[in-house]
Amino acid sequence: MPDSLVIIPTYNEKENIEKIIRKVFSLSFAFEVLIIDDGSPDGTASIVKALQIEFPERLHLEQRSGKLGLGTAYIHGFKWALARKYDYIFEMDADFSHNPEDLIRLREACVNGADLAIGSRYVRGVNVVNWPMGRVLMSYFASMYVRWVTRINIQDATAGFKCYRRVVLETIPMEKIKFVGYAFQIEMKFTAIKYGFNVVEVPIIFTDRTEGESKMSTKIFREAFLGVIQMKINSWFRSY
């Protein structure tokens, strides 16, 4: 039986969702997929439901009533996965910015000793395709800022392509994870390191979406910028 679950949050991803699901299921390893759809008005969930007829054992769908945030979607997925048999639990975007073939490399990193494997854009220079230079610089310097504030040695602190060993998600108290946007990605890495888990960066090439619309916003960036300081201060008063 498959031991690996790929969690993909969606909001208005009708252009990408069928292609990304079929690509994951075409890989040499038998991953399962859980789609967390936040009430997409474009019919994303209906496409997933149709594909469930073709992939009844491997494709799962959880529908939520509205756009509740990336972090809460993943936490919903983590709890769903922990209630079942999975040993390796992945985060991945629906828009092909994360190459599904790299799922195998992330899993291998965890099989070989990592507790959390991160698909890193910056561990070997800058490996980003189709981003405007301004966004590349913003992302790169955001990771530098996170390292400076938190003192964690992660080159790609905001990365959202990851594989967790089950024990990491069993250990981290999800009710204490506060952020819902891209700061969520930083907080999960920071917390895993604080608990003493082995975090490994696996170099990937990140390709910006070609279909659908980006979910990045000034509000999300502001949450991440200010949230890092708050997260660091809060860590002084927590036991790990």
UniProtKB/TrEMBL annotation:
Q: Which UniProt keywords apply?
A: Glycosyltransferase, Transferase
For this record, the Gene Ontology CC terms, alphabetical, are: membrane
Please, which domain of life does this record's source organism belong to?
Bacteria
Q: Name one Pfam family in it.
A: Glycos_transf_2
CDD domains registered for this protein in UniProt: DPM1_like (cd06442)
Please give one Gene Ontology molecular function term for this protein. dolichyl-phosphate beta-D-mannosyltransferase activity
Q: Glycosyltransferase 2-like domain location, by residue? A: 6-171
Does the UniProt entry include the keyword NADP? Answer: no
Picking any one GO biological process from the record gives: glycolipid biosynthetic process
Q: Family, per the entry?
A: Belongs to the glycosyltransferase 2 family.
This protein's name:
Dolichol-phosphate mannosyltransferase
Which species?
A: Pedobacter insulae
